[in-house]
C-alpha cells in the first residue's frame, strides 16, 4: 500500500491580501494587491526558499504563514486546523507554540530596553511554559544553542554586534520549540562577513531540531543552495515552484530563468536575460499574466487570461505560463532571444 501523504505543517489555499493605501488625495484610496491567490504548503522538516524582487509579496506571504497577517480571503491551515476560524486566544497559543519568525533587521525586531535574558524569557512567560527555574534554564539552553556566551544574558541589544543580535532573534524564535521557522531576509541587514555564519546556524538548527524552514531572500543563489524547493513570486503571485536542484536550468517560467540568470556562476559567466518594459504597480496589476509587460515571450493570450498552474515533468514542479521555457533550454539562448525582442521594441 502507498503510505498516506503527511499532513502539511501549514497550507494556504487561495490566500489573498489586499491593503488600502491612500494616494492621489485625502479621500482617494487605492487597493494594493500584496498577495493574490496563493496556494502553498510546507511539509514537516522541509526547507522552502522564496525568491522575487522587492515588492513581490514575499514578506506578506511570510507573515500570513505565521499568523501575523490575516488574509483578506482564503484559508490558512496549521496542522490541518483553520487558523482564522479559531478564537483569538486559541489562535495566539497555536501560532506561538507552533511557529517562530526571524525578521530582517534585528536592531528593530528586538526591544532595545530589555536585556537578552528578558527577550528570550518573554515567550516562555507569555505561554506559561514551565516553572520560573525551568524558564531560566531554557534561556541558558537557547543561548548555548545559537552560540551566545552566557555572559551576554544581561546585555542590551545595543551592546551586541549585528550578528549577535540576529542570534538572539533566532533563539527567541526557537524558545517554544516550534515545528516551523520563517526567516524573512534574515541576513540582509548584516555585514557580509557574518552572513554565512547566520545561514550556517539556521541550517545546523534545522537539522538538529528537525525544523521546517521557510527562507525568504533576495539572494537567490543562497536560497537555491539552502532549500529543498524554491518558490518564485512576482507581483503578489506564486508563478513557479520547483525542486531546488532544477531551478537554475530546468525552470519553466521566464521570470524564474531571468532571476537566476542575473547571478551566473563564475566559471561560465553570461549576461543576464534582459527584461524590457515597465514594472507594473501592485495597485493596478496588468490583466492576464502579471509578468507579461516585461516578458519577451508574451503574446495576446497573455494579456487576455491568467495562465493555469501546469505540472512540470518532476514531482513538486508547477508553473503559471502560457509560453513556458523549454525544459533544459540553455540560458545563453534565452539571453539572445530576449535581447533580440528588446531591440525590436526600442523606439527608433
UniProtKB/TrEMBL annotation:
**What domain of life does the native source organism fall in?**
Bacteria
Q: Which residues form the ABC transporter domain?
A: 10-260
Q: Which UniProt keywords apply?
A: ATP-binding, Nucleotide-binding, Transport
A Pfam family (short name) is: ABC_tran
Q: Name the Gene3D superfamilies for this protein.
A: P-loop containing nucleotide triphosphate hydrolases (3.40.50.300)
InterPro entries according to UniProt: AAA+_ATPase, ABC_transp_ATP-bind, ABC_transporter-like_ATP-bd, ABC_transporter-like_CS, Oligopep_ABC_C, P-loop_NTPase
Stored PROSITE patterns:
ABC_TRANSPORTER_1, ABC_TRANSPORTER_2
Q: Name one GO biological process term.
A: transmembrane transport
Any one GO MF annotation of this record: ATP binding
The record's family statement is: Belongs to the ABC transporter superfamily.
Q: What is this protein called?
A: ABC transporter ATP-binding protein
| Protein species of origin | Streptomyces ruber
